[in-house]
Q: What sequence folds into this?
């Protein structure tokens, strides 16, 4: 993770694609995702063309641990090293790179199941990749906290049946902001957001896919909590809800500002949410309630290991 000073925070337009039609046919999933990126890139009547487009978690595959190995792609990205897209073994990476170039926008490519190597002893990750407007792959994040839950009678899910958790925290810099990365369940771990905020992130973006049990209770609450605690913007981008799929996503893709207000959101159908990320709210929240300068690290140090 870079420790350079963050870029100046400038207003930018975000487009969250709450993608529908994610089925078992990967080629169709990729074609539809690209079409939606190009549609999102034109903006809507009330907004300018977006600077950054975000896809949801697991956009090229059905969501479920049995599917991950079958849909996984080998990316072989090494942070800080140039990446030759033309030699990439990942069709999703190639599509996202082309889409970023055609749309001339930054893209956070939701997430895909990733295979660490082409060898038989490969590990599998839930991975997001990031593209600059010239189509370069510039950052990657592997979901750190795997979604392993069991709420009797409601939902049981165990990503760790086939996935391994990522081992790093990641952000990237654009010409308008420093952007921290997480994936879905990662939002339940405030440490991650706190570290990103203290490293200068202006916004944390989480491709995600909550469900019909935890979604209504926690989806908005967690985003507002992380936003207020850290006085940064928080956004989560979900797939659309498909009641014929094995996993029912909550939807409600949204952007929350540093005061904890929901700036924009949608319901559960396929949709594109456009929102302006306004640095003025970031500055006024921090000036009015100056917790970022009132922290008592002298007191907290004793609980670091608890
Ligand atoms: N895909 C996920 O990580 C789902 C997380 C979730 O639903 C939760 O309640 O947390």
A:
């Amino acid at each position: 993770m870079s420790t350079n000073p963050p870029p100046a925070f400038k207003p930018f337009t975000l487009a969250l694609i709450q993608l529908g039609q994610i089925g078992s046919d990967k080629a169709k999933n990729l074609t539809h995702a690209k079409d939606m990126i190009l549609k999102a890139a034109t903006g809507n009547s009330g907004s300018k063309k977006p600077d950054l487009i975000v896809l949801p978690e697991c956009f090229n595959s059905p969501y479920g641990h049995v599917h991950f190995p079958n849909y996984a792609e080998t990316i072989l990205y090494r942070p800080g090293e140039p990446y030759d897209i033309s030699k990439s073994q990942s069709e999703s990476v190639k599509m996202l790179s082309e889409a970023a170039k055609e749309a001339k926008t930054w893209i956070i490519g939701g997430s895909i199941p990733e295979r660490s190597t082409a060898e038989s002893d490969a590990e599998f990750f839930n991975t997001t990749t990031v593209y600059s407007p010239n189509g370069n792959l510039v950052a990657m994040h592997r979901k750190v906290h795997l979604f392993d839950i069991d709420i009797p009678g409601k939902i049981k899910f165990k990503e760790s049946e086939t996935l391994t958790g990522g081992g790093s925290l990641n952000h990237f810099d654009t010409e308008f902001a420093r952007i921290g990365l997480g994936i879905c369940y990662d939002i339940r771990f405030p440490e991650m957001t706190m570290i990103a905020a203290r490293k200068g992130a202006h916004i944390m973006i989480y491709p995600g896919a909550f469900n019909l049990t935890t979604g209504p209770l926690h989806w908005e609450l967690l985003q507002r909590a992380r936003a207020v605690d850290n006085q940064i913007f928080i956004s989560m981008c979900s797939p659309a809800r498909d009641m014929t799929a094995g996993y029912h996503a909550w939807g409600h893709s949204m952007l929350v500002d540093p005061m904890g207000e929901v700036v924009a959101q949608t319901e559960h159908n396929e949709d594109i949410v456009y929102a302006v990320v306004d640095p003025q709210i970031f500055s006024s929240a921090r000036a009015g309630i100056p917790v970022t300068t009132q922290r008592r690290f002298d007191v907290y140090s004793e609980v670091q290991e608890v």
Summary: The pocket of LYUYDEPV is lined by residues 57, 147, 184-185, 188, 209-211, 214, 218 (CB under 6 Å). The chain has a mean pLDDT of 95. The two ends are 25 Å apart (CA to CA).
